[in-house]
Amino acid sequence: MNVSDTAAATFPRNRLPEWVKPKTPTPAALTFDPSVTGDVARGATIFKTAPCIACHAIRGVPTAAGIVGPNLTHVGSRTTIAGGIYPNDLEHLHKWIKNAPEMKPGSLMPLFGKAEKGDTPGLYTDQQIADLAAYLSSLK
Ligand code: HEC
Questions:
Q1: What is the pLDDT of residue 6?
Q2: Nearest residue to 36 via CA among 97, 80, 122
Q3: Is the alpha carbon torsion for 108, 44, 87, 91 positive or negative?
Q4: 19 CA to centre of ligand 1 in angstroms
Q5: Whole-angstrom Cα distance, residue 127 to residue 36?
Q6: What separation in Å is there between the alpha carbon of 7 and the centre of ligand 1?
Q7: Which of 100-104, 115-119, 124-128 has the lowest mean pLDDT?
Q8: Alpha-carbon distance 44 to 62, whole Å?
């Protein structure tokens, strides 16, 4: 075994083998507009007081100490989200925040997209969701 074989066992983000990349299709009704670009600082500001903090913790954000959802301190360095069913990129983060129950039926995370229909009223516009996704992606 040479050095690159052992290194491959850690699945570095830029050298992921095809078979570990999730290919779960996203629900057709869920839209993502890549021209709406998020702002990391705005996303951080939204997150601090958003309902997200009731379920998620981020180290260094004193208001965010929830334990119902996964800890998001290093979410930007992960290769997948939602228990490995989706790749971790801006599109999937956006759709996830927009409507997690659609993305993963049975998910405890409520929907947050303003125009989405579900058990809870949506809170955020596409721009605000893009800001949140940009912020989360920056957490390496
Ligand atoms: C009621 C609790 C709850 C709230 C509120 C909530 N989440 Fe979640 N969140 C969860 C749970 C539970 C999961 C794990 C879902 C799964 O994989 O089944 C999750 C998963 C995630 C993930 C994927 C992380 C990963 O490692 O898979 C992201 C990103 C996320 N939430 C962001 C947010 C954001 C942003 C908000 C606020 C706009 C928010 N969440 C609000 C419970 C919540």
A1: 53
A2: 97
A3: positive
A4: 25
A5: 6
A6: 31
A7: 115-119
A8: 12
